[in-house]
Design goal:
Length: 378
């Protein structure tokens, strides 16, 4: 069969494009195995009392047609495994004792990989057929990463028989003189997502309040960002800070907020990791004053304010002392955290209080309490 012999001669070149396991991203190609993934052009020849030729394209979900109007799923199989499975299937369907089955690949499908996120040129890229393509090469093809990229948490999403599999990859060491590691070899259909660096905010009684990324905190790759790391990045607390009542305002994907309280004093003096929590991306850390009432967020003059001897402090009065809401304030959901109820966030509709005169909704607040004014989505 000269046609099949000619194909066998070029088969190693075609197989070079299929070096990846469908399950795990491999960094070495010691075992180079082709497996059907769908989209391949094939010729199926069956010899018994007559020869039957079927030229076809494997379906995207891996099915091939066989004589006798039967089909077989060969997705994930090697060439030898698919040939054996087809021979067995034809035996069962046609009732033949020893059919001769030949399976040949005549063309390979277009192969693409995708990169998105914190790179300069997100794109879909044609995967070369004649050589391996590691992750480091894809990052270079995308123009490199942006300044806020987090190379420690790159995601590789790969299709497999079990569904999409996500692998976390630390790319901080790719291409360095101390290693020849260029990352896993990429497969057709792989999606690479480069996330931005985790970012946190810190307000209140610290030397340098503001937003800080993982890079600005200057932690080694792989280490979690803890509360103490962020405080250190903000150059420490002021003498007026109440370090025993640190608050973290955390928002979940659904938009719900919760307030967590920690004793940073115990974390620093006693080494208590329970009081030095790992921060999550987007956490807002509020460092309250030991005396006075803190207000942060969308007001014109955030800061610490003190009740006057003449009367009690309320949320409305505190907002007024802070210069009023700015144009982006979410007035209908001002959050109050009382010192004696640190784990609870109470929402106050200050729009109803200040614009509709519903003074009964206004709350009295005392030193140690905190008020947060969020941002409107409009």
């Amino acid at each position: 069969m000269p046609r099949l012999n000619a194909f066998a001669a070029c088969l190693p070149v075609l197989l070079a494009a299929f070096l990846c396991s469908s399950e795990e991203p491999a960094k070495e190609d010691a075992i180079r195995v082709f497996r059907f993934s769908g989209g391949e052009n094939v010729t199926v020849q069956v010899f018994y009392d007559q020869r039957v030729d079927l030229n076809q394209i494997i379906t995207s979900d891996g099915f091939v047609s066989l004589p006798g109007a039967s089909t077989l799923n060969i997705r994930g199989m090697t060439l030898a495994e698919a040939s054996a499975a087809m021979t067995q299937k034809i035996k069962e369907v046609r009732g033949l004792k020893a059919p001769q089955v030949s399976l040949a690949i005549t063309a390979l499908p277009a192969r693409r990989i995708y990169i998105q996120g914190a790179v300069r040129f997100p794109q879909a890229l044609h995967l070369p057929q004649d050589h391996d393509y590691p992750l480091a090469a894809l990052l270079a093809e995308a123009g490199g990463t942006t300044e806020d990229a987090d190379l420690r948490r790159i995601k590789l999403v790969r299709r497999s028989a079990k569904g999409n599999q996500t692998h976390m990859i630390d790319a901080t060491h790719f291409g360095k003189p101390s290693t020849d590691d260029l990352g896993p070899i990429l497969c057709s259909g792989d999606v690479v997502i480069v996330p931005t660096s985790e970012a946190f905010s810190i307000t209140g009684e610290v030397q340098k309040p503001g937003f800080y990324s993982r890079k600005e905190v200057r932690l080694a790759p792989g280490l979690p960002v803890r509360l103490s790391h962020l405080v250190t990045g903000a150059e420490g607390t002021k003498p007026s800070a109440d370090r025993k009542n640190m608050r973290i305002l955390r928002t979940n994907p659904a938009g719900d907020r919760k307030v967590l309280q920690f004793d940073l004093e115990a974390a620093l003096t006693q080494g208590s990791l329970e009081q030095d929590p790992v921060l999550e991306d987007g956490d807002q850390v509020i460092v309250p004053a030991s005396e006075g009432i803190s207000i942060t967020g969308r007001v014109r003059a955030p800061g610490i304010y003190y009740p006057s001897p003449g009367g009690p402090m309320t949320v409305a009065r505190l907002v007024a002392l802070a210069g009023g809401f700015d144009q982006y304030a979410k007035k209908s959901q001002v959050i109050v955290v009382f010192k004696d109820k640190p784990g609870q966030a109470v929402r106050v509709d200050m729009k109803a209080v200040m614009e509709n005169g519903q003074l009964d909704l206004d709350l009295a607040i005392r030193p140690g309490d905190m008020v947060f004014v969020g941002e409107s989505s409009l």
